[in-house]
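Re-run requested by the PI after the first attempt was lost when the workstation crashed. Everything re-entered from the original request form. Ligand of interest: calcium ion.
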Amino acid sequence: AKQAGRGQYRFFDPSLNKVDIEEFSLEQAFGQALKERQFVLHYQPQIRLDSMRVEGYEALVRWQHPEFGLLYPDRFIPLAERSGFIVALGWEVLRLACEELARWNALGVQAWLAVNVSPLQLRHADFSYRLLQELQRYGIRENSLELEITETAVLDYEGQAIDNLTRLRAAGLSISLDDFGQGYAGFSHLQALPLNRLKIDRTMIAQLSNSHDDSPIVTSTIILAKRLGLEVVAEGVETREQLVCLRLAGCDLAQGYHFSRPLTSAQLREYAPFSNAA
Ligand code: C2E
Ligand code: CA
Ligand code: CA
Ligand code: CA
């Protein structure tokens, strides 16, 4: 482990061979990481189930740390949320997303990119204006960006968050409710939100098994969401059996290891829809 002085890194535990982010001097490490562009995005394909074509990708942030290697979001997003750094990180992620979309445009690739947005970002009154400005600056069509939000975003900061989402959706962005079925999610306020899609949490998908009629919760979630005019995305699809269940239940889109792990920008170039394009 390193020295523990003020502003020092002290988060490497050799006995566990593991980074202990809790002991990290946040402002310094995050600030430097931003400056040195250490955050990168990986991209996981989203497949439309009736055509089995890739129609979009979810952007997932990683921290390419010079000393500790590739850090996954579960290691730093919760702390970034607590410290408020998530707002700066969120803008970096949106900037990276715009850069990638601009590259796709240049390659002639038509796909949307879905980006995770923190509740803390959405509560800022100017979020929507600033985002629309960014899209314009990069020449990105509004309908190629999707925002993945969680319920807490709209429960905690209802007015401001919903105003932002309403403006963005009116401008053509797509809004997707993430992790449905994970928390206290109810259908009641689904109708009140400006949504295009509902993402069924992977803990619900994991309960789908071999027999096709043992999934009443997933099936009725899909039916209800579609009745509300939403498209349904299943996340964390790992097996063929889950895929079969979801197709039978009328699910629109799916993503998960069964199709592909999240890919780097370079790996995307070798992925079929990309090499076929342009
Ligand atoms: P999430 O939004 O639910 O993202 C899906 C997570 O599930 C990703 O983990 C993805 O790699 C993983 N996954 C995908 N397919 C499968 C599968 O078939 N099986 C299993 N077991 N897992 C699968 P990841 O990349 O570690 O991201 C974790 C969480 O970090 C995300 O959960 C999201 O809440 C958060 N996150 C990621 N990127 C961002 C970001 O740019 N901004 C914010 N605010 N949060 C982010
Ligand atoms: Ca997500
Ligand atoms: Ca999710
Ligand atoms: Ca999740």
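Saved to the shared folder this time. Confidence is low (pLDDT under 50) at residues 1-11.
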